[in-house]
Amino acid sequence: MLEAATDVDRVMTQRPAPHTLSDEALSELLGKQRFGTLATVKRTGHPHLTTMLYSWDAEARIVRLSTTADRVKVKHLRRDPHAALHVQGGDVWSFAVAEGRAEVSEVTTVAGDAVGRELLGIVPRDARPEDEDAFLEQLVAEHRVVVRLQVDRLYGTALDIND
Hints:
Elements: H1 2-14, E1 19-20, H2 23-32, E2 35-41, E3 47-57, E4 62-68, H3 72-79, E5 82-88, E6 95-104, H4 114-122, H5 132-141, E7 144-155, E8 157-158
């Protein structure tokens, strides 16, 4: 804990400048992480923030997220598709933001349908369920949907602290 406080003190007194991350570095950061904070727009215009498991398809520039059809974020996105995903880097000094327009899939209704398979694809390979059929049935029971954030802007920074 003392070491972290020392790093903060050094940053506050020496004030190193953050540097902008390249598109490639931002994409790499998105690909390494599994959790991020999804921001949707409330009716009032204020952001609604929620932590979500996601997957990043760098080639298609799509963030995929799994949620249930009854969640408030789904209502927000159906009304206003503007959204952003904030992802923390490997330390508190770096981050990436993926902005774009989101679409919400139909609810998965039959175990193993296209939406269910897409939802299964969001689960990291090292965390895939042993009983895939039971998992797909659970997705149907939970009324799961895929949120697809088509990313049109990536931005973020890193702050290098040199010893």
